Amino acid sequence: MPESWDDHHVSPATRELRKITAARRAIDVALQTRFLWISQEKRDAIATCDDLELLRQWLIRILTVDTVDELFPEPS
pTM higher than 0.70 for the full model? Predict the structure, then answer.
């Protein structure tokens, strides 16, 4: 999607926030498409993640995991 003229005048922080928001949306759509249902706990984990690199990793891993739980392993 082409950027509008206004996009060239936003701060780097705003651009980063837009990328994070887009990644969260993409993850949500991909999870719903692959697994049909996602628990509120998992939705909250996605909605509160501000780490763009982690969001990118999750998006890529959605293609290879067999369950949603594999995407969010328990901390060791």
Answer: yes
